[in-house]
Write a structure and sequence with these properties.
heterodimer, A: about 425 residues, alpha+beta, Rossmann fold, 8-stranded antiparallel sheet, 16 strands, about 30% helix, B: alpha+beta, two-stranded antiparallel ribbon, about 50% helix
Chain lengths: ~425, ~675
Amino acid sequence: MTAQKNDQRNPDKGYVAFLGWSLNAVEAADKFDRRYVVVAPDWAEAYCKEHDIPYVPWNFERLNDRSMEIAQTLKDMGVDVAIPLFEETVEWAGAINSVLLDNPRLFGQAMLLRDKALMKRRAQLGGIRVGIFEEAHDKEDVIRFLKRVNQTLLKLDGDPNDPIHLKAFDKAGCLGHRVIRTPDEVDTIPEEEFPVLMESHLDGWEFAVEAWIHNGKIRFLNISEYVTLGYSVFVPATPELEKYRAAITTQIEKLIKTFDIDFGFIHPEYFVTSDGEMYFGEVAYRPPGFKVFELLERAYGFNAYQGMILAFDPKTTEEEITAFFPKEVVDAKGVAGCFGVYPRRRVVSKLEIPEETEDHDYFESHELTAPLEETVTKRTAFGTHWGLVYFFGDDPHTMRDLLKHQEDLDFYV
Amino acid sequence: MSHSETSPGGDASKLEGLTSKLEEAIRLLAEARDFAKPTKIRRVFDTARRILLKEGGCQVIERLAPQLEQAGVFWGSDWAEPGILVPSLSTHSLKSPDPDTVVIEAISELRLLAIARNSYTHPTVSAEQAHHYLTQVLAINLELLFGTPSEAEREQQGRLANVTRSLFRHLADGIGYEFVIDQLVDEIWRIIQQRPIQVDSVKRMITEIAICRHNPEVELGNSGQGADRLISSLFAPTQGCREDPGVAVYLERLESMDSGALQYEATGFARAMHDTGLVCAYHAVFVRYLLEHGDHLLSEALGLSSTGRDCLLCYDSLVRAIITESVYAETAQSVYGLALMLERGILYQPPVAPALWRQVSLPISPYCRERLWLAYGESPGPRAWLLSGVLCMLGQPLGVGQGNNPTCQSARALSMWAYNDPDYLLQMVVWAARDDEIIIHFEGQPVSSRESVSGVAGELPVDLDPVSLLVVPHLDRIYAEMGRRCIGREGDPHQWVNPEFHGWWSGRGFRINVDVSTGQLWELDAFLRHFYASYHPYYNGNQPLIHPQPAGIAVTDSAARFIGWHAITILRVALDPKGVMRVYFYNPNNDSGQNWGDDVVVSTAGHGERFGEASLPVDQFASRLYIFHYDPLERGELALVPDDELEGVVDRIYRSWGSDRAPSVTALQAEPGQSSP
């Protein structure tokens, strides 16, 4: 294995392996005291060689007979645990870790965390509240579900329908997420998207949680407040959401128990309705999108990837992990948020950061690039934003209003 | 269109906050290993940009320059090796629409300033090298130092255009103005030799030099000698105003002058004005004064020859009315326009004098008043500004500039009418200024500027002379509409549009050497042979060109690479003082002195050019020509044109804009000539 530059590495610990390529994760590991290796597709090889990054080539397609091969390779290298960085590598981590840690149950757990329908069913069995859901294999299933949900709600013919949500079983975040209100809209779903998971719409406040778990205990629990789903998020949340922290912690503990999670990192989403009732949405066993890790580092100063390494590594000691994480909310230096920019116009020619955004005290930086095409593709599902704008400041309410306000501004004109 | 500058009040604390943010961003960047630097650079760029937008931001960046460089801001780019940087490339970076490019260039310049001032010892660049480099950068980008951002820059760069301005002021403060002044003076003389109508930026540059010279902290040494005449022309051309006393004092002095002293003033003003094309405010005050107290000196004060004096005497009351209405300190340039208009003798054309009487008392529409106000301010009023603009355009028809707008055809038309058909120009001005509508007929059908939706320019231009300001938007829309009416016809639309748009004298014969559908060169030999036979006196029966003719050129850059199509006017073809046959032409671009590469350098003075003319030897001109008009009935002898002359021209075409347009090469696309700037 390549010599690692950092001579601060702890010789008493083994190796950890990252599954998937993430520059931020690699950088975090590189600065940390653990020895590490990156398992990534071969296009990353030249880059890793150039920069002395320890690397094992692997193409993560569907799990196959060769799964054992990579597990064995890593085991021979002295790797103690594999850490998934993307939704697609979660089942690989399960498979590999079941070998590395000699615990076959981990693979089944990973499969459960990869399939949104199975996941909901398991949650329901564990006594966690979920909305009405069902799998759909074709368009007729969708129409039937839409009708049934609205009948249940005692809607009469002609009343506007409550929408239902369609999600791919195994995709991260908002990818493939559609909202359907009328049977007509069902026709817009391409055949190749089936099968999908259908859910009733929950009117409530959606939020996400990031929880680092070691030895079955929550070591750090962050609540990420969404201002508008798919647009913006900030940490720590406003006091109005943080007041549910105790209730949320109870929910997460339930989740840990139900899914039998002993270590690692989870990223579940919930709805809280106006009467304080929590509904489970879904849970992922990998870092969240929308750069929440970067926001956490900005707000608290700790590196969330390094936190993941600690949470996954079986050789982590109790003292080590306790010393690593700060105290939630009170230790935050400020509030960090980001906003995902979608062009609002149909035709755009250039990027122009609004002056009021750039001049705001909270503005930090952006990663928007000039438009490549002039015509903006119409968003059918919750699509991908064109880049993020970062903010940092003292007050969560100012942050929330600021992020909300960005939705009314044109970044592309 | 004044963009609010940063207010100094809350800025200091904001700047402090941003500075600590930048310091933290630099620290994170410095701590990151090479491969992770790209993920940390955004915060540095974004924060640095905001600091540069603030008053005093340049100082902060200069102070942090060593940390910025060591943290790796330039890592992986050319800027990482300051020793290899080329000063001339800075212009491109600083005008880039990409904010990061502007910011990194600014950081790099400020780093070099820190090196030049010995506050930063650099491993590969000495203080002398840095100083030399920055001097060159300043001299090359003088307009960034003294000019205000053009609308085009604002459009492309937004607030960043102000960053480059404050950066250059800071650099010049640090390097010393004396190093750039000499280059600046040469540049000013080169521009005013072309006698542009718009001299605001020139005046501003001269003012800056004057301020430098009076600032005891600026050590100019021996430099800036050539600036004397410029500064005196603008501020103190005569005995009576030699220390720039202010208008009130000057008027008092005039009261006590005897006729000898007044005469002395008159000749002093006139000499300065005709030397430089610049008119000082005292001159305007003096001319108004003469109306009441000695109009026998008017001819002297305008510096008129016998032709002009004759004209002045014939149209005495009109001239007095014009002066009363339009000559003010603010509109001082109108004196020069008036003098040159009288010299041209165009008042003797029957419609011109009555048309000018109409102009003197023209009611201006509220919309046009508003636009004149916005562009020039309230004093001395829209009608005075417009009349002053009319005088300048009639006096300096070749001084019309298109500003930073893609409206070369409209500027060319105005210039051509002022030159060839002044009465028609006056009519256009009236239609635009009074009626807010211009109608020109296209093949018998009226084309209204009001009904035509859009022109070539996306926005209303503001950086123009008063006449262009009001008339160009109409012409632009009409021109574009005429183009639209040609859609579907085979061939280049200029063929039909140009004669209908400009006037009956545009030749109906038409030649183009580019195949509109493929962009490839087409019938090159016939094209050039017709051009020589129509225009070159050796082959057209020694017939001087009678009317100005619209033509199109393929503009190339100094490396002879194709830039775009451009509209010009061919004015005359004649021998220069050295016996070289040259084409003299008008270029609506604001500065005709351009290097088109492959040794084709457009001359604006020194080769027999009249004010405002550009010129090239015939063969060089022909090598950039792609469209011309001619009179099919007056064609010369095609066979007389020597083959080797044409071969030389063809070679030049293939060495420049024609390099990838050889007809055998397929699928190379050029935009049809419609959208010339």
